[in-house]
Amino acid sequence: MSNQIQVEVAYGLADKQSLLSLQVDEGVTVEEAIRQSGVLEEYPEIDLSKNKVGLFGKLTKLSQVLRDKDRVEIYRPLIADPKEVRKKRAAEGKKMGKGGGKADELKATIKATKDAKANT
User: Fold this and answer.
1) Are residues 11 and 60 in the same domain?
2) 65-94 as b/e: b if 16+ CB within 10 A
3) In this structure, are residues 30 and 64 in contact, taking their beta carbons and an 8 Å threshold?
4) 21: nearest Cα among 75, 65, 69, 76
5) Burial call 40-51: b when 16+ CB within 10 Å, e when fewer
6) Which pLDDT band, with edges at 50, 70 and 90, does 99 fall under?
7) Average pLDDT for residues 61-86, to the nearest whole number?
8) CA dist list (Å): 114 to 37, 103, 107, 108
9) In this structure, are 8 and 40 located in the same domain?
């Protein structure tokens, strides 16, 4: 009989979170623990070929061997690309006079005034 270790498998939605605790054989991988936990049956939208997984908030591979007390996390796909969201916010900020433009002009005016005073 092989040694057993204690691990947790976590998955969260906006309105519901699951933290499943289970005993698995030593040497089990992230993928094997996920399958043994039953989370795939409870949340059929999880696709291990698409959803990223991690251990304690750090991305890892499905083939990673687990250690005692590890917490496997299954991450939901992002709805929007963070880079695109930042670009959109920056563009909207420029339209509203935020984030560059006028503020940069003001800094240049202040610097020119200070330089002029220093030269007199």
Assistant:
1) yes
2) ebeeebebbbeeeeeeeeeeeeeeeeeeee
3) yes
4) 69
5) beebeebeeeee
6) low
7) 89
8) 67, 17, 11, 10
9) yes
Pair 55, 107 in one domain: no
The total number of structural domains that make up the chain: 2
The pTM for the full model equals 0.65
Same domain, 15 and 33: yes
Both tokens assigned to 40: 């795939």
Q: Per residue in 48-72, pLDDT tens? A: 999 999 999 999 999 999 999 999 9
CATH of the domain at 23: 3.10.20.280
* Domain extent for 27: 4-74
pLDDT in tens, 4-50: 999 999 999 888 899 999 999 999 999 999 999 999 999 999 999 99
For residues 33 and 58, membership in a common domain is answered with yes
Indicate if 87 and 66 belong to the same structural domain.
no
| Under 8 Å between Cβ of 33 and 66 | yes
